[in-house]
Amino acid sequence: MVRAPGGSPGSPIWGEGTESRKANNPSYAKCVGAEEAGPLLEGRAPPTEPALLGPDPSFSTGENLAICLRIPNVIDRISPGAHLSSGAKAAHRRELPITEQRISARVGSIAESATLAIDSKAKALKAAGENVIGFGAGEPDFPTPEHIVAAAAEATHHLTYHHYTPAGGLPELRAAIATKTQRDSGFAVQPEQVLVTNGGKHALYNAILTTVDDGDEVLLPAPYWVSYPEIVRLAGGTVVALPTTEETGFRVTLEQLEAATTDRTKMLIFVSPSNPTGAVYPPHEVEAIGRWAADRGLWVITDEIYEHLVYGDSRFSSMPVLVPELADRCIVVNGVAKTYAMTGWRVGWMIAPLDVTRAAMSLQSHATSNVSNVAQAAALVAVSGDLSAVEMMREAFDRRRQTMHKLLNEINGVTCVEPQGAFYAFPSFKELLGTEIGGRRIESSEELGQVILDEAKVAIVPGEGFGAPGYGRLSYALGDDDLVEGVGRIADLLA
Ligand SMILES: Cc1ncc(COP(=O)(O)O)c(C=O)c1O
Fold first, then answer.
1. Residue 37 and residue 25 in contact, taking contact as beta carbons nearer than 8 Å
2. Mean pLDDT over residues 436-462, rounded?
3. Integer Cα distance of 299 and 291 in angstroms
């Protein structure tokens, strides 16, 4: 079992004492190409072959990935597996008979989704009769609006909805998404540019697999949503994480982007409003970043899934609308999940230049074929209807956002910038690291999350999964009373 010095198995290696830990961790050196790797995680000898760039073969790929992922201040140019030389790759695979390699290197390198993991822990505790309050799930607590549910129910009675649709989606849904996009963000697109996918996550997967090759570098502002780096790595790409902090409102700067760009850079993944920080880029920053990407000839995936959830003076703006010259290298990702409280229906889409959409459609045709026909019927009614249900939810989220922001900042050792969009607060718990809570010494936000779950029966998502150790994510898409009770329990535990 690998144990970070002084930590629990798999505990993060960032935070207090980072310098000594990174010097002691050979994989750190490999992640950043540092020379000075010393002795290491318990029981492992330092590498004798500095020329072998890439994951330490004495660690599992998951461990290597976890280590790389937990180094936020670092431009992580190492993608497990993808950066082994072909000779090293072959040697690695020769260690075991091929039939004993039960999990492929590609899939073995993926870390479990931190958000789904905490959510399932909380659900398991609830099922066991515990009174758990969950801030983990990234989904509205509201039911799907009744007219959408009714349309799906009606569709189930019609034979056409019992059968396949074209892989790219119902033509009328693709047309409605094009119309909705023009209505909501001002981006004019053809229905043929739209690919209907199994949720926004699948749209990202299709978009990234379709455009990213082995060794391509993908710029990823951190804190980032958990699935972005995993999908990039699955595609063989290299994640170049760009850490941001409260000082810039968790927004990446042009200087950072410029400094991280190399001749291997292919793409920027951009999301505003952001999961997990709630940051919203003002239009002039969206435009400046888009113009920079266009000038550099880079691709941008812009994730617009929280487009309608902005608060106060913040405004959503769509990058290809502000920078039309980017449109030929821009992929918009969106879906019905967050806007219409339809997380379980699994309908999303990507909008891309025609050649990219066609290629992604071909990929999808061999993977999932079409999205559930009945779910597409529901999505058609959702995107064709007005936005009154969204507005009702937005107002509730706004109220809860303000409550949560206030309550969190009242807790000693916790600071939280005011989220501007989506439905997440992203407080810093850094001041609490190194202290004792619930009888345990807490060295990381992962350990803090565990003690909060064990002692206060409250689920939060530790920052490590978002590339931001020392922080945690709390969704405020839950009932007002639960929200107050949950934050109160945390406050009592930390008092
Ligand atoms: C930023 C972001 N993009 C995409 C998604 C994917 O949404 P879904 O696959 O549920 O449509 C999520 C879900 O949490 C998200 O937060």
1. yes
2. 94
3. 11
Helix (H, G, I), strand (E, B) or coil at 450: helix
Q: Do 305 and 268 belong together in one domain? A: yes
Residues 441, 343 within the same domain:
no
Distance CA 431, CA 428 (A): 8
Parent domain of 46: 19-108
Q: What is the Å distance from ligand 1's center to 223 Cα?
A: 15
Number of other residues whose CB lies within 10 A of the CB of residue 366: 8
Closest C-alpha among 333, 351, 199 to residue 270: 333
Tell me: do 182 and 311 sit in the same domain: yes
Indicate the residue among 325, 357, 384 that finishes a domain: 384
Q: In what order do the strands lie in the sheet with 461-462?
A: 424-425, 472-475, 461-462
Are 96 and 153 part of one and the same domain? no
Is 183 found in the same domain as 290?
A: yes
H-type alpha helices, 188-318:
199-211, 227-234, 254-260, 283-296
CB-based burial label for 52 (10 Å; 0-12, 13-18, 19+): middle
pLDDT in tens, 148-185: 999 999 999 999 999 999 999 999 999 999 999 999 99
> 442 and 366 in one domain?
no
Contact criterion met (CB below 8 Å) for 8 and 66: no
For helices 480-494 and 388-409, give the axis angle rounded to 10 degrees.
20
Mean pLDDT of 197-220: 98
**Structure confidence at residue 298 (pLDDT):** 98
| Domain annotation covers residue 4 | no
Best mutation site among 338, 371, 372, 376 for ligand 1 pocket (most ligand atoms within 8 Å of CB)? 338
- Tell me what pLDDT residue 201 has: 97
* pLDDT tens for each residue of 388-423: 999 999 999 999 999 999 999 999 999 999 999 999
Sequence letter at residue 360: A
Q: Is 136 in the pocket of ligand 1 (CB under 6 A)?
A: no
Domain count, the chain: 3
Which two three-digit tokens encode residue 333?
Answer: 């990702």
- Which residues are bridge partners to 217 per DSSP? 238, 265
Alpha-carbon Rg for the chain in angstroms:
23
Give the pLDDT band (50/70/90) at residue 109. confident
**Is 1 among the domain residues?**
no
| Mutation choice for ligand 1 from 274, 305, 310, 342, CB with most ligand atoms inside 8 A | 305
